[in-house]
Amino acid sequence: MEFGPHLLLATLEGAVTAAVLALTAVGLSLVFGVMRVVNIAHGEFYMLGAVIAWYVAHMMGGHPALGFFAALVLAPLLVGAIAVLADITILKRLDYDPERTIVATIGLLYIIQQLTLMTYGPEARPVEAPFNTRIALPWFEWGEDGFQFYYPWGLSTTSYKLAVIGAAAAVLLGVWAMMARTKIGLLMRATQADRDMALAFGIPVERVYALVFGIGAALAALGAVLIVPIQQAHYLMGADPLLLAFIVVIIGGLGSLPGTVLAALFIGLSDGIISVFFSPTLAKILATLLVGLVLVWRPQGLFGTRTA
């Protein structure tokens, strides 16, 4: 296969990774931006979304679309509810202290992981995609009559992968609209700007924190539901998304949603392209080196603001 078509296919694979990574990282960035809590258990909420998706699809039976779309609704709601419960019972009692919440979310990570192992088991299990039509991808070359399109042998993708990209983009636009155009978003931004002032104006800060923690976990779970027809659900699958989400949030800027999305696009696309042409390990190494450079030259991230 020629380099150009090969690059197009690698870019599409990277775009799928970037779409899911953006959902996961935006949830992590939202929690830190509003609550100033570093949620180490974020990857396990991602994993729970995939595992719950498998349970829902398995119990529904029938056409794969029925189970998948039911999981698309139920898994984020259930994971969000679990996160709200964790916030009320654990983080709230620690008064959202940054150091103690890190330790608490590490403990929450192991609790969720081990409970999943006990109930779900160690097996990796697939969820069937609701639709999966193969789509031939065109390439072009310049000829005597202008651009000539053709279809290189083997260059194709699936309709589901394209749908994942579109669905993630729609959800991210919805998150932006919620933050910028709704009363809930206004309360979140006010709490993020000054917690004490928000309390003085009668904003129920603890309720806002619980809501934000639930939304962040639900976004991670939604990303997992979208990716689980491509990757299998497994009780250890939360580690890589957590690492990549932290890389994205650090590069984009802690608490900056636009920076997080742009960094997710960059990391996801580069990961896909480098993994295809070289190796996935090299992609992770380069991403980690980039984090080091950002921390040295711009500690607040590319789009973050320096705090006093």
Features:
mainly alpha; globular; two-stranded antiparallel sheet
Gist?
By secondary structure, the protein is mainly α. It has one domain (3-130, 205-297).
Low-pLDDT regions? none
Distance between the termini: 53 Å
Structural class: mainly alpha
Largest sheet: 2 strands, antiparallel
Whole-number count of domains? 1
What shape does the CA trace take? globular
Helix-strand string: HHHHEEEEHHHHHHH
Query: In which order are the strands of the major sheet placed?
Result: 1-4
Percentage of residues in DSSP E strands: 5-15%
Number of helical stretches of at least 4 residues: 11
Mean pLDDT score: 88
Q: Over all CA atoms, what is the radius of gyration?
A: 20 Å
Describe what this molecule looks like in 3D.
- The chain is mainly alpha-helical and 308 residues long.
- The chain has one domain.
- It has a two-stranded antiparallel sheet with strand order 1-4. A two-stranded antiparallel ribbon has the order 2-3.
- α5 crosses α6 and α6 crosses α8.
What's the arrangement of secondary structure elements?
Elements: H1 3-35, H2 42-60, H3 64-91, H4 98-120, E1 134-136, E2 139-143, E3 146-150, E4 156-158, H5 159-181, H6 183-193, H7 195-200, H8 205-227, H9 239-252, H10 257-277, H11 280-297
Antiparallel strand pairs: 1-4, 2-3
Helix pairs in contact: 1-5, 1-8, 1-9, 1-10, 2-3, 2-4, 2-8, 2-9, 3-8, 5-6, 6-8, 9-10, 9-11, 10-11
